[in-house]
Amino acid sequence: VQKETGTTGMLSESTFSGTNLMELAVQGPSADAVMTATMAIINRISEVMGVLSSGDQNVPSGDVRLKVVIPKRAAAAVIGPGGQQVKNIKATTGIRITIDTHSLPCGDPSILEEAVCLIGPLNSVRPALETVVRETANLVHEPWFNAWANHSNAGKHVPGLVLFEAVGRGGGAKGKGKW
C-alpha cells in the first residue's frame, strides 16, 4: 500500500490516550493518497477480522466503527454550521458521525485534536471518510499543521480521560456528540 500510494503508515507502540487502541498514523503527498491507503487498510482489516470495530463490542458484520483523530478545526468543519454537514453525510451515506467532547493538546496547548467515530455500513464509509480527510487536508497550509501531524497522544496518560464513553449522547454546550 505504501509503495502504491506514496504514503507512510506508523503504528504506535502504546495505546492512544483515553482508549485501549493503538494509533495508526497515515501520511502522504495528497488527500487522495491518504484516502486510498486508508481505505485499503480498512478493507484489509475488515476482510481478515470480519469487521472493523475499533474496540467496540457487538459491531454487526458488514459494519464499521472507525475512530480517527483530527485537528479540532477539522472536526468543526466536519460538523458544519448547525450540524448540517454531518446531517447530510448521514442522509446520503447512512454513516453516523460522533465527535468526542474532549479536546486533546498536541504538545502546544493551542494545537488541539479531537476523536471522531464513523459508524455504519462498511460499503458506505468511503464518502464519509473522504469528507473527514478533505476537511483535514484543507488545513495543511496552517502554520501549526505540521506540529499536529507529527505529534501523537499515544502513550500519554491523562487522568480520568475515557474517549467515547458517552457515544450516543449529545455533547451539550460544545455542540458535539451524535448526529
Which helices and strands, and how do they pair?
Blueprint lengths: L1 H4 L2 E8 L6 E6 L3 H19 L13 E9 H8 L4 H10 L2 E11 L1 E14 L3 H13 L7 H5 L30
Antiparallel strand pairs: 1-2, 3-5, 4-5
Helix pairs in contact: 2-5, 3-5
Q: What do you see in this structure?
A:
There is one protein chain. The protein is an alpha+beta fold and 179 residues long. Helix content is 33%, strand content 27%. It has helices at residues 2-5, 31-49, 72-79, 84-93, 125-137, 145-149, and strands spanning 8-15, 22-27, 63-71, 96-106, 108-121. It has a 3-stranded antiparallel beta sheet with strand order 3-5-4. It is globular, with a radius of gyration of 15 Å. The relative contact order is 0.20. The model is unreliable at 167-179 (pLDDT under 50).
Characteristics:
disordered C terminus, single chain, 3-stranded antiparallel β-sheet, alpha+beta, two-stranded antiparallel sheet, 179 residues, 5 strands
